[in-house]
Design brief:
CATH class of the largest domain: Mainly Alpha
Structural class: mainly alpha
Strand content: under 5%
Number of helices: 11
Oligomer: single chain
Order of helices and strands: HHHHHHHHHHH
CATH superfamily of the largest domain: Tetracycline Repressor, domain 2
Shape: elongated
Number of strands: 0
Low-confidence stretches: 1-21
Helix content: 55-70%
CATH architecture of the largest domain: Orthogonal Bundle
Largest sheet: none
CATH topology of the largest domain: Tetracycline Repressor, domain 2
Distance between the termini: 97 Å
Length: about 220
Protein backbone atom coordinates (compact mmCIF):
# COMPACT_ATOMS: atom_id res chain seq x y z
CA UNK A 1 0.00 0.00 0.00
CA UNK A 2 1.17 3.50 -0.67
CA UNK A 3 2.40 5.59 2.26
CA UNK A 4 1.15 8.76 0.59
CA UNK A 5 -1.73 10.26 2.55
CA UNK A 6 -4.43 12.29 1.00
CA UNK A 7 -4.68 15.80 2.37
CA UNK A 8 -7.60 18.18 2.32
CA UNK A 9 -7.12 21.41 0.41
CA UNK A 10 -6.44 24.33 2.75
CA UNK A 11 -9.15 26.89 3.11
CA UNK A 12 -8.13 30.50 2.62
CA UNK A 13 -9.88 31.27 5.91
CA UNK A 14 -9.73 28.02 7.82
CA UNK A 15 -9.57 29.71 11.24
CA UNK A 16 -12.86 31.50 10.73
CA UNK A 17 -11.18 34.83 11.57
CA UNK A 18 -11.86 37.97 9.58
CA UNK A 19 -9.32 38.63 6.85
CA UNK A 20 -9.25 41.23 4.15
CA UNK A 21 -7.66 39.90 0.94
CA UNK A 22 -9.47 42.31 -1.37
CA UNK A 23 -8.54 45.89 -2.17
CA UNK A 24 -5.26 47.78 -2.09
CA UNK A 25 -2.68 47.08 0.59
CA UNK A 26 -3.47 50.39 2.29
CA UNK A 27 -7.21 49.68 2.29
CA UNK A 28 -6.69 46.20 3.70
CA UNK A 29 -4.43 47.48 6.46
CA UNK A 30 -6.80 50.27 7.49
CA UNK A 31 -9.82 47.99 7.45
CA UNK A 32 -8.05 45.31 9.48
CA UNK A 33 -6.65 47.85 11.95
CA UNK A 34 -9.95 49.58 12.58
CA UNK A 35 -11.69 46.25 13.07
CA UNK A 36 -9.10 45.15 15.62
CA UNK A 37 -9.03 48.52 17.40
CA UNK A 38 -12.83 48.31 17.69
CA UNK A 39 -12.84 44.73 18.97
CA UNK A 40 -9.78 44.63 21.21
CA UNK A 41 -8.93 48.27 21.89
CA UNK A 42 -5.94 50.22 20.68
CA UNK A 43 -3.53 49.15 23.42
CA UNK A 44 -4.28 45.44 23.09
CA UNK A 45 -3.84 45.37 19.32
CA UNK A 46 -0.33 44.70 18.01
CA UNK A 47 1.12 45.43 14.61
CA UNK A 48 1.47 41.66 14.19
CA UNK A 49 -2.28 41.26 14.77
CA UNK A 50 -2.89 43.79 12.02
CA UNK A 51 -0.61 42.26 9.40
CA UNK A 52 -2.06 38.83 10.16
CA UNK A 53 -5.63 39.93 9.66
CA UNK A 54 -4.85 42.13 6.65
CA UNK A 55 -2.66 39.37 5.15
CA UNK A 56 0.19 41.71 4.31
CA UNK A 57 3.85 41.70 5.25
CA UNK A 58 5.38 43.79 8.03
CA UNK A 59 7.43 45.49 5.36
CA UNK A 60 4.26 46.60 3.56
CA UNK A 61 2.74 47.83 6.82
CA UNK A 62 5.73 49.86 7.98
CA UNK A 63 6.23 51.33 4.51
CA UNK A 64 2.82 52.99 4.91
CA UNK A 65 2.53 53.49 8.67
CA UNK A 66 5.66 53.79 10.78
CA UNK A 67 3.84 53.65 14.12
CA UNK A 68 0.57 52.33 15.49
CA UNK A 69 -0.54 55.88 16.24
CA UNK A 70 0.04 56.81 12.60
CA UNK A 71 -2.16 53.87 11.70
CA UNK A 72 -4.86 55.03 14.10
CA UNK A 73 -4.66 58.51 12.61
CA UNK A 74 -5.16 56.98 9.16
CA UNK A 75 -8.22 55.06 10.33
CA UNK A 76 -9.77 58.17 11.86
CA UNK A 77 -8.94 60.44 8.92
CA UNK A 78 -10.57 57.98 6.53
CA UNK A 79 -13.79 57.95 8.53
CA UNK A 80 -13.99 61.56 9.62
CA UNK A 81 -14.69 62.60 6.04
CA UNK A 82 -18.06 60.91 6.39
CA UNK A 83 -18.86 63.00 9.47
CA UNK A 84 -18.56 66.25 7.56
CA UNK A 85 -22.07 66.83 6.29
CA UNK A 86 -22.31 68.98 3.16
CA UNK A 87 -24.62 71.95 3.02
CA UNK A 88 -25.24 71.72 -0.69
CA UNK A 89 -26.61 75.14 -1.57
CA UNK A 90 -24.54 75.70 -4.73
CA UNK A 91 -27.46 75.09 -7.07
CA UNK A 92 -30.19 76.80 -5.08
CA UNK A 93 -29.59 78.79 -1.91
CA UNK A 94 -32.65 79.23 0.32
CA UNK A 95 -34.70 82.24 -0.68
CA UNK A 96 -37.43 82.04 1.96
CA UNK A 97 -37.59 81.38 5.69
CA UNK A 98 -39.49 78.17 5.01
CA UNK A 99 -36.81 76.72 2.73
CA UNK A 100 -34.09 77.88 5.12
CA UNK A 101 -35.77 76.16 8.05
CA UNK A 102 -36.18 72.99 5.99
CA UNK A 103 -32.47 72.99 5.08
CA UNK A 104 -31.45 73.48 8.72
CA UNK A 105 -33.62 70.57 9.83
CA UNK A 106 -32.23 68.31 7.10
CA UNK A 107 -28.69 69.30 8.07
CA UNK A 108 -29.29 68.43 11.71
CA UNK A 109 -30.92 65.10 10.88
CA UNK A 110 -27.99 64.18 8.63
CA UNK A 111 -25.42 64.98 11.31
CA UNK A 112 -27.21 63.06 14.05
CA UNK A 113 -27.80 60.00 11.91
CA UNK A 114 -24.14 59.94 10.88
CA UNK A 115 -22.43 60.57 14.19
CA UNK A 116 -24.74 58.34 16.22
CA UNK A 117 -23.72 55.30 14.17
CA UNK A 118 -21.66 52.72 16.13
CA UNK A 119 -18.64 53.10 13.85
CA UNK A 120 -18.59 56.88 14.27
CA UNK A 121 -18.83 56.54 18.06
CA UNK A 122 -15.92 54.09 17.98
CA UNK A 123 -13.84 56.74 16.19
CA UNK A 124 -14.55 59.21 18.99
CA UNK A 125 -13.75 56.68 21.70
CA UNK A 126 -10.44 55.75 20.10
CA UNK A 127 -9.42 59.39 19.70
CA UNK A 128 -10.34 60.13 23.31
CA UNK A 129 -8.53 57.06 24.64
CA UNK A 130 -5.28 58.10 22.96
CA UNK A 131 -5.61 61.87 23.42
CA UNK A 132 -2.86 62.00 26.07
CA UNK A 133 -0.30 60.12 23.98
CA UNK A 134 -1.38 61.39 20.56
CA UNK A 135 -3.38 64.64 20.96
CA UNK A 136 -3.00 65.43 17.26
CA UNK A 137 -5.42 62.59 16.47
CA UNK A 138 -8.18 64.16 18.57
CA UNK A 139 -7.42 67.58 17.05
CA UNK A 140 -7.75 66.14 13.56
CA UNK A 141 -11.10 64.62 14.44
CA UNK A 142 -12.36 67.85 15.98
CA UNK A 143 -11.11 70.10 13.18
CA UNK A 144 -12.34 67.89 10.36
CA UNK A 145 -15.67 67.03 11.94
CA UNK A 146 -17.25 69.38 14.46
CA UNK A 147 -15.40 72.57 13.53
CA UNK A 148 -15.78 71.98 9.80
CA UNK A 149 -19.55 71.57 10.19
CA UNK A 150 -19.77 74.72 12.33
CA UNK A 151 -17.77 76.70 9.78
CA UNK A 152 -20.02 75.60 6.92
CA UNK A 153 -23.11 76.53 8.88
CA UNK A 154 -21.70 79.94 9.86
CA UNK A 155 -20.98 80.69 6.19
CA UNK A 156 -24.55 79.76 5.26
CA UNK A 157 -25.95 81.92 8.05
CA UNK A 158 -23.92 84.90 6.87
CA UNK A 159 -25.63 84.70 3.47
CA UNK A 160 -29.02 84.03 5.03
CA UNK A 161 -28.72 87.12 7.22
CA UNK A 162 -28.26 89.24 4.11
CA UNK A 163 -31.73 88.07 3.03
CA UNK A 164 -33.10 88.43 6.57
CA UNK A 165 -33.97 84.75 6.71
CA UNK A 166 -32.47 84.00 10.14
CA UNK A 167 -31.78 85.71 13.43
CA UNK A 168 -29.21 88.49 13.59
CA UNK A 169 -25.94 88.18 15.45
CA UNK A 170 -22.49 86.71 15.01
CA UNK A 171 -22.89 83.74 12.61
CA UNK A 172 -20.24 81.74 14.47
CA UNK A 173 -22.10 82.21 17.76
CA UNK A 174 -25.39 81.28 16.11
CA UNK A 175 -23.83 78.15 14.63
CA UNK A 176 -22.53 77.13 18.05
CA UNK A 177 -26.02 77.70 19.49
CA UNK A 178 -27.52 75.48 16.80
CA UNK A 179 -25.17 72.60 17.61
CA UNK A 180 -25.68 73.02 21.35
CA UNK A 181 -29.44 72.65 20.84
CA UNK A 182 -28.94 69.76 18.42
CA UNK A 183 -26.73 67.68 20.68
CA UNK A 184 -27.30 68.67 24.29
CA UNK A 185 -25.70 65.85 26.28
CA UNK A 186 -26.57 63.20 23.68
CA UNK A 187 -23.07 62.58 22.35
CA UNK A 188 -21.54 62.34 25.83
CA UNK A 189 -24.23 59.87 26.91
CA UNK A 190 -23.68 57.73 23.82
CA UNK A 191 -19.91 57.70 24.28
CA UNK A 192 -20.37 56.63 27.90
CA UNK A 193 -22.87 53.97 26.82
CA UNK A 194 -25.44 55.17 29.34
CA UNK A 195 -28.26 55.47 26.82
CA UNK A 196 -29.51 53.96 23.58
CA UNK A 197 -29.11 55.56 20.17
CA UNK A 198 -31.80 58.15 19.41
CA UNK A 199 -34.89 57.10 17.50
CA UNK A 200 -35.88 58.65 14.17
CA UNK A 201 -38.49 60.67 16.02
CA UNK A 202 -36.00 62.02 18.57
CA UNK A 203 -33.55 62.91 15.81
CA UNK A 204 -36.21 64.87 13.95
CA UNK A 205 -37.31 66.63 17.15
CA UNK A 206 -33.76 67.65 17.98
CA UNK A 207 -33.15 68.92 14.45
CA UNK A 208 -36.32 71.02 14.49
CA UNK A 209 -35.45 72.49 17.89
CA UNK A 210 -31.97 73.41 16.67
CA UNK A 211 -33.38 75.04 13.54
CA UNK A 212 -35.85 77.08 15.60
CA UNK A 213 -33.00 78.67 17.56
CA UNK A 214 -31.81 80.29 14.32
CA UNK A 215 -35.19 81.25 12.93
CA UNK A 216 -36.35 83.29 15.91
CA UNK A 217 -36.58 87.01 15.22
CA UNK A 218 -34.41 89.22 17.42
Amino acid sequence: MSDIKKTKPRSSNSTGQNTYPAGSIRERILKAAFGLFSESGFSDTSMLDIVTRARVSKRDLYALFRTKHALLAGCIHERVEGMRRPLDTATSEPQTRETMAKLLVEFGVSILKTVCQPEALTVFRLAIAESDRAPEIARTLDNSGRKANQKMLAELLTKAQERRLVATGDPAVLAARYFAALWGDLLLSLLMRVREAPTEREIATRARAAAETLMARQ
